[in-house]
Design a protein that fits this description.
The chain contains 19 helices and no strands. By secondary structure, the chain is an all-alpha fold. It is 72% helix and 0% strand. It holds the Pfam family PAP2.
């Protein structure tokens, strides 16, 4: 036994070691049973066992007949299926690992990265080894590349959502843990169901993906628990999560008091501010609609003279930087990172209300003003909203200005000036691309600037996003202090 293990035995007796051994044996039996079941299923698929093939075909054709009858059903199934695709799972794992590194929890972060990387290797390797073709259904509603067994979506969702539960379970209150586990299980089950209903996998493909995912999580979780024991930590039941001591560090903002004092009063102030900003936008939009400045159509016409296929493509890319998907992705990345770095909900609330207010103000103002698009060729075609104010530009401005406000108060390093620069450069690029593509007038850009200035001004006055702002160095020092205190308590 190592010195650390001797200390553990001297302090607590042999009971924890005996319990760990018992749980280890039980865990190995469970993992072996799951692995054996997967192996049997793999052989049945590989050697084309007729009863299994008949069951697969029956389920595939039945669900295909149900799904193919409605385009809405297919669209919903595809959306749910995306939660098991690499486009969602890879960023989710990278973001979760980044959060853990920010919270100075390298071991669970490494666990996520290693376990996720293993799933990426297992999926294509087994598909190439088995070489099973995908289902052939009567009415194809979706397609997928590569072979069929096991389902990569089923495997990936089981591994990713399963390991996220194991890592973040200690941050949950005990009353909420069953709901957290149930939500993850529901997502995994829904993803597997959609792969069969869309006709891109057999039932046995999904079951194989689930079994392989459980086996892989079990192996890596067992290795992690061995790692903990060798470091001198106790080995509690797996129902407490992989690293129960990390619970305080995983909780979003344990030391923060009320996010907003007097929330009802603050809510009323925000609502009143929204009404006044909308009134201002409507007044300006009404005036511009009745009095059209001569330069308003002249600028898009002038930009139109520079159009080439290459510039059209570049303008499309620049325009995409301000669309709903890009803005949402950046927000969903920044908010968790900000919460992990500074452990405060207030800046996250500030950014969320900024974007919600921008969207509602833009939609209401555009519907009320009803301004026509520039009288030039519009590359993007007919749009569902009117021209004033520009939604792309307003969303880009609000996002990057709000992020710059949050970061500048909390970061002291020179690189913080990147964010004010982005708050100027990104809206300028999006504005130029939107006018080049014939979608907006210069006064629409001015309307977006007015919306951003007025709305962020309201939220700044009401929310005070930088009240009690903590710099990165202060947050790191506080986290280090808390970690040392817990270590001292354990030693004592």
């Amino acid at each position: 036994m190592t010195t650390d293990e001797n200390r553990v035995v001297e302090r607590t007796g042999w009971a924890p070691v005996r319990h760990f051994a018992e749980r280890s044996v039980l865990g190995l039996i469970v993992v072996a049973a799951i692995g054996l079941t997967f192996g049997v299923l793999l052989l049945l698929v590989r050697f084309h066992w007729r009863p299994l093939l008949d069951l697969d075909q029956s389920v595939a054709h039945g669900l295909n007949s149900w799904a193919a009858g409605s385009e809405t059903t297919v669209a919903v199934l595809q959306q749910i299926s995306s939660f098991g695709g690499r486009g969602v799972l890879l960023p989710l794992v990278v973001l979760a690992a980044a959060l853990l590194f920010l919270r100075r929890l390298p071991r669970p972060a490494i666990y996520l990265l290693v376990t996720g990387a293993g799933a990426l290797i297992l999926d294509p390797s087994l598909k190439a080894l088995i070489g099973r073709l995908r289902p052939v259904v009567e009415i194809p509603v979706a397609s997928a590349p590569g072979n069929s067994f096991p389902s990569g979506h089923a495997l990936g969702s089981m591994v990713v959502y399963g390991m996220l539960v194991l890592v973040f379970l200690p941050a949950m209150r005990r009353a909420w843990r069953p709901w957290f586990i149930g939500l993850a299980a529901l997502i995994v089950a829904a993803v597997g169901f959609t792969r069969i209903a869309l006709g891109v996998h057999f039932l046995s493909d999904v079951l194989g993906g689930w079994l392989l995912g459980i086996a892989w999580i079990s192996v890596t979780a067992y290795a992690f628990r061995i790692w903990r024991r060798e470091a001198g930590h106790e080995t509690p039941p797996i129902t407490d999560g992989l690293d129960p001591e990390a619970g305080p560090d995983l909780r979003p903002a344990p030391a923060e008091e009320a996010v907003l004092p007097h929330p009802w009063a603050k809510g009323a102030e925000i609502l009143v501010g929204w009404v006044f900003v909308f009134g201002l936008l409507y007044l300006v939009g009404y005036s511009v609609n009745r009095w059209e400045p001569p330069f308003d159509d002249a600028v898009p016409r002038w930009l139109q003279t520079f159009r080439t296929p290459d510039l059209d493509h570049l303008s499309w890319l620049a325009s995409k930087a301000g669309d709903t998907h890009a803005i949402l992705i950046i927000s969903l990345i920044f908010c968790p990172l900000a919460l992990a770095a500074w452990r405060q909900w207030r800046p996250v609330l500030f950014l969320a209300l900024t974007m919600i207010g921008e969207l509602t103000l833009f939609l209401c103002a555009a519907a009320s003003v009803g301004r026509e698009r520039p009288s030039v060729e519009q590359i993007d075609g007919q749009m569902p909203t009117s021209s004033f104010p520009s939604g792309h530009i307003a969303a880009t401005m609000c996002l990057w200005v709000a992020i710059a406000i949050i970061v500048m108060a909390r970061v002291r390093q020179p690189w913080r000036w990147i964010f004010p620069a982005l708050a100027v450069i990104m809206p300028a690029i999006v504005a130029l691309s939107r006018m080049y593509r014939g979608m907006h007038h210069p006064t629409d850009v001015m309307g977006a600037l007015l919306l951003t200035t007025a709305w962020i001004g309201v939220l700044w006055w009401v929310i005070r996003p930088n009240a009690h702002a903590e710099t990165l160095s202060e947050a790191a020092a506080e986290a280090e202090k808390a970690t040392r205190s817990r270590d001292l308590e354990k030693v004592g």
